[in-house]
Design a protein that fits this description.
With 330 residues, the protein is α/β, with parallel strands linked by helices. It has helices at 6-16, 28-41, 51-56, 60-72, 88-97, 118-133, 163-173, 199-208, 224-232, 245-254, 263-279, 286-308, 322-329, and strands at residues 20-24, 45-50, 78-85, 101-104, 138-143, 177-180, 214-216, 256-261. The structure holds zinc ion (ZN).
């Protein structure tokens, strides 16, 4: 199975009423951990790379690592998605590398920090949609701004999505999926107490645009067990909370179909490596501690695929090529 457009994975998730995790990757161990989890529970997969990941891997490495995942797992639908594209140029670059989906985060200016107006957001998103759809590539937009900062992205201000604006935005831009701001936050330091998400926003957007899969960013759960492992082995993380899995499951029922997860993978890797070195201080073979990190990613991702409901759905449908997806947009 080649890469599939993300639109197919998310449209199928609407039909089956489940959510699909989109996991950020920067290296081979993360990709292998995610793919092993997907194989074992038979889940569709969204692998996503941020601009930071493209830079870290010097573009070609991420492309070929993702291609390796496809070659190694011919039975699974896999989408390769650009997380938080900041301009038409960045989206074009990702598409030229073979990404089957791009996010244009027009809620912020190109610096990834300054909030834009509704009109500015529409303008840049429309330009990306026009280009990407001509290649059969999926586009995710964003309306409203999240709290927190991750990989240099974030204004530090929170502006929840207005459901009427969201419906208009979808109609005017033609985006395939829309990220909403419903009270989640990027990064590891999210909340002191469990957040109350604005579920009514999800329901209202879903009522106005029932065919558009909705996306939740900043949705790591930041489990206490992972924080505890890091601190037990010399880490110094402060008390923090993420989005409880029950809230995510409720959001999925209401219309969220893509759930972005980055922080939980980072915590799992960091904890595994710290623990490994504490217990094996004389080990120098990188395969041992990177192997422990890969195992930790696998465990976290597998549980999420089960919790989000995507487990068991990889063989529900026949994969769509970008050529076929192109026709869809004509
Ligand atoms: Zn995000």
């Amino acid at each position: 199975m080649p890469f599939v457009p993300m639109k197919q994975i998310l449209d199928e998730a609407i039909k089956g009423n489940y959510g699909v995790g989109a996991f950020n990757v920067n290296n081979m161990e993360q990709i292998q951990g995610i793919m092993r989890a997907a194989r074992e529970v038979n889940s569709p997969v969204i692998i996503q790379a941020s601009r930071g990941a493209l830079k870290y891997t010097n573009l070609y490495y991420i492309k070929h690592l993702a291609l390796a995942a496809v070659e190694d797992n011919p039975e699974l639908p896999i989408a390769l998605h650009l997380d938080h594209g900041n301009s038409l140029e960045t989206c074009k670059l990702a598409i030229s590398l073979g990404f089957t989906s791009v996010m244009i985060d027009g809620s912020l200016k190109e610096d990834g920090k300054t909030p834009t107006t509704f009109e500015e957001n529409i303008k840049v998103t429309k330009a990306v949609v026009e280009y990407a759809h001509s290649m059969g590539v999926t586009v995710e937009g964003e309306l409203g701004t999240l709290g927190g900062i991750e990989d240099g992205v974030g204004s530090g201000q929170v502006k929840l999505t207005d459901p009427d604006e969201a419906a208009e935005f979808i109609k005017l831009t033609g985006v395939d999926a829309l990220a909403l701001a419903v009270g989640t936050s990027h990064g590891a330091y999210k909340f002191r107490v469990a957040p109350k998400l604005a579920m009514h926003i999800i329901s209202q957007v879903k009522a106005k645009a029932p065919d558009t899969p909705l996306v939740m960013h900043g949705s790591s759960s930041v489990p206490k067990e992972l924080i505890d492992i890091i601190n037990q082995y010399g880490g110094k993380l402060q008390h923090t909370m993420g989005v409880p899995i029950e809230s995510i499951q409720e959001a999925i029922k209401l219309g969220i179909k893509k759930i972005n997860v980055d922080t939980d993978g980072r915590l799992a890797i960091t904890g595994a490596i710290r623990k490994f070195f504490a217990e094996n201080p004389s080990e120098i073979d990188p395969r041992t501690y990177f192997g422990a990190a890969r195992q930790a990613v696998y465990e976290v991702v597998k549980q999420k695929m089960i919790d989000f409901g995507s487990a068991g759905h990889a063989s529900d449908y026949k994969p769509m090529s970008l050529e076929e997806a192109k026709k869809f947009y004509m």
